[in-house]
UniProtKB/TrEMBL annotation, chain A:
It is found in: Cell membrane. Signal peptide: none annotated. It comes from Desulfamplus magnetovallimortis. This is ATP synthase subunit I. GO terms for cellular component: plasma membrane. Keywords: Cell membrane, Membrane, Transmembrane, Transmembrane helix. Pfam families: ATP-synt_I. It is a multi-pass membrane protein. It comes from the Bacteria. The keyword Transmembrane applies. The chain crosses the membrane at residues 7-28, 34-52, 73-96, 108-130.
UniProtKB/TrEMBL annotation, chain B:
F(1)F(0) ATP synthase produces ATP from ADP in the presence of a proton or sodium gradient. F-type ATPases consist of two structural domains, F(1) containing the extramembraneous catalytic core and F(0) containing the membrane proton channel, linked together by a central stalk and a peripheral stalk. During catalysis, ATP synthesis in the catalytic domain of F(1) is coupled via a rotary mechanism of the central stalk subunits to proton translocation. InterPro entries: ATP_synth_csu_bac/chlpt, ATP_synth_F0_csu, ATP_synth_F0_csu_DDCD_BS, ATPase_proteolipid_c-like_dom, F/V-ATP_Csub_sf. It comes from the Bacteria. It is a multi-pass membrane protein. This is ATP synthase subunit c. One of its GO terms (cellular component) is proton-transporting two-sector ATPase complex, proton-transporting domain. The lineage of its organism: Bacteria, Pseudomonadati, Thermodesulfobacteriota, Desulfobacteria, Desulfobacterales.
C-alpha cells in the first residue's frame, strides 16, 4: 500500500475513533452543553468528510476525467462543496443561535478531521524519517 | 460605531473573505488535479487521495471562520458585560 492510501485509510478510521473518544471524554468531564457541542461538531465534520470523499471518488475516476469536460468536473465539485457548506452553515447557525451548544465545544468538535489528518501526517513523517535512518 | 455593529461588520467581512479564499484555493487545487489526471490517468488514485486531504483542510478553515463569525454575532462571550458597561454610561 502506498503512502496516500495508507494515510487516507488511517484518516477515515481515526475520524470515527477520535469522534467517539472526544465525545465520551466530553460527556464525562465537561458540562452537558459543551459535550453536546463536541458531539455535534465532530459528527458534522466527519459526515462532511465522507461526503467530500464520495464526491471526489465519483468525479475523479480516470474514465470520467477523460470523457467529461474539465470545467464540468470543477463545477460539480465546487457546487457540491457550496451545498455542503450551506447545510453545515445552517446547522451551526441553529446550534449557536438557539444556544443549544457551547461554541468552544463546537469548535473543538469541528477540529476532529484536522487533528486526524495531522496525526496521520506526523505518523507518516516519523515512518519516513526512521526508514531513512535505518 | 457601537460595539455590536462592529461585531456584525467583522463577522460579515470575515466569512466573506474566508469563503472567497477557500473557494479560490479549492478551485486551484481541483484545476491542478483535473489537469494531472487528464495527462496521466493512472495517477488518478494518488491524486484524488492527496486532493481529498487538501480539500478537507481547506474546508475546515472556512467552517472555523463561519463558527467564529456566528460566535461574534450570537454568542459573544463578553456581550453581557459590554451591555452592562453601556447601560452604566
Amino acid at each position: 500500500m502506498d503512502i496516500q492510501q495508507r494515510m487516507i485509510s488511517f484518516v477515515i478510521k481515526s475520524n470515527w475513533y477520535l469522534f467517539v473518544i472526544v465525545t465520551l471524554l466530553g460527556f464525562i468531564n465537561t458540562p452537558f452543553k459543551f459535550a453536546l457541542g463536541i458531539l455535534c461538531g465532530a459528527l458534522l465534520v466527519t459526515i462532511n468528510f465522507h461526503f467530500l470523499r464520495h464526491t471526489l471518488y465519483r468525479s475523479f475516476k480516470a474514465e470520467n476525467v477523460l470523457s467529461a469536460e474539465p470545467r464540468s468536473i470543477l463545477n460539480v465539485v465546487l457546487v457540491k462543496y457550496y451545498i455542503r457548506f450551506a447545510i453545515s452553515g445552517i446547522v451551526i447557525f441553529a446550534l449557536i443561535n438557539r444556544n443549544i451548544v457551547e461554541p468552544i465545544g463546537l469548535l473543538l468538535g469541528l477540529s476532529v478531521v484536522v487533528v486526524s489528518i495531522m496525526v496521520a501526517t506526523a505518523l507518516e513523517l516519523t515512518r519516513l524519517i526512521f526508514k531513512e535512518a535505518v | 460605531m457601537d460595539f455590536f455593529t462592529a461585531c456584525v461588520w467583522a463577522a460579515g467581512i470575515a466569512i466573506g473573505i474566508a469563503a472567497f479564499g477557500c473557494g479560490i484555493g479549492q478551485g486551484m487545487g481541483l484545476n491542478g488535479a483535473v489537469q494531472g489526471i487528464a495527462r496521466n490517468p493512472e495517477s488518478s488514485g494518488k491524486v484524488t487521495v492527496t486532493l481529498l486531504i487538501g480539500l478537507a483542510m481547506i474546508e475546515s478553515l472556512c467552517i472555523y471562520a463561519l463558527v467564529v463569525a456566528l460566535i461574534l454575532i450570537y454568542a459573544h462571550p463578553q456581550a453581557a458585560e459590554i451591555i452592562k458597561t453601556v447601560v452604566a454610561h
